[in-house]
Amino acid sequence: MKFEILHRTHYAYASPVRESFNEVRLQPLSNEHQTVESFLLKVLPTARLRHYHDFYSNCVHHFEISGPHSALSIDSRLEVTTRANQSLPLDARPANMARLPESLQHGRCYVFLQGSRYVELTPEAWRLALDATQGEDDVWQTALRLMRYVHGTLTYQPNSTHVHTHMRNVLAQRSGVCQDFAHVMIGLCRSLRIPALYVSGYLATQAASATHAWTEVFVPGAGWQALDPTHNCQPDETYVKIGVGRDYTDVSPVSGTYKGTTDRTLSVEVKIERRD
Fold first, then answer.
1. Which residues on neighbouring strands pair with residue 53, listed in sequence order?
2. C-alpha torsion angle, residues 214, 216, 217, 222 (rounded to 10)
3. Residues 6+ away with beta carbon under 8 Å from 85
4. Which of 11, 8, 72 is nearest to 266 (CA)?
5. Where are the beta strands (DSSP E) in the chain?
6. Cα–Cα distances in Å, from 50 out to 47, 53, 180, 214, 249?
7. What digits encode the pLDDT tens for the residues 26-81?
8. Could you tell me if 98 and 163 are in contact, meaning their C-beta atoms sit under 8 angstroms apart?
9. Where do the domains of the chain lie, and which CATH numbers do they carry?
10. Global pTM?
11. Half-sphere exposure of 166 (CA within 13 A, CB side)
């Protein structure tokens, strides 16, 4: 599938601000699942854009606006072609849980076994994970059970949380949005020593055309496998992957600091159109 995606972020300040320093994570990388045909990033007020690749290989653009300004607009335009993932079958049993220590020999799996800003490894999370997977000894099947548990336990409720909501609060209220579903599943997986990372991206379906978040788990012998606890499924060609990290903190689309008023409004618009 080929998609054209417009992602527009606009800040309006009640009074002029200055010394604005920003990072933008909106440019996907090409991989076996997707090919980025073109990417254009525009900023107003105009600023010189630079970029680098972070610890997780995400492309990060950064810029600064030193003078006073009452608004900031960040527009990205993306053309991308996606392909179906070569995912593990749902009935596969590729690796016993006893093989999980092997993951430490692969890449940065160790990082994705630790707690992070919005994910914590508590005895309570460990107990929930054990109860949800009781009797299962295969890594892949354990991850699938955790995905089904999160999907069945949490209620999708727009505006019930915000981008800084911790997984403990999501579990307490049993509701949230896609990033909350991802954080809870990541916490449960890591509690059982299954490496799990956070994925940011887009989802283009008839029911939704928006930013989205899901997870990937590491299965010994099979590598990283994508799972979406919000929709209880394996991501397909309607998913566009932007970046990965320990949790939302590492892949927030726009982050930064400035000097001036805290009275501001934020609007975000995403438009996704199929082009094939």
1. 59
2. 140
3. 33, 226, 234, 235, 236, 237
4. 11
5. 2-27, 34-44, 50-53, 59-65, 69-82, 155-156, 175-176, 196-204, 209-219, 223-227, 239-245, 254-259, 264-274
6. 10, 11, 31, 28, 21
7. 999 999 999 999 999 999 999 999 999 999 999 999 999 999 999 999 999 999 99
8. no
9. 2-83+252-274 (2.60.40.2250), 97-251 (3.10.620.30)
10. 0.95
11. 11
Residue in the block written with tokens 């090919």? 35
Q: Enter the DSSP assignment of 162.
A: -
In this structure, the dihedral spanned by the alpha carbons of residues 109, 114, 119 and 122, taken in order and rounded to 10 degrees, is 130
- For β-strands 2-27 and 175-176, DSSP reports them as unpaired
Tokens representing residue 224 in the block = 């990283």
Q: Which of 29, 18, 79 is nearest to 58 (CA)?
A: 29
Q: Return all residues near 237 (Cβ < 8 A) that are at least 6 apart.
A: 1, 33, 82, 83, 84, 85
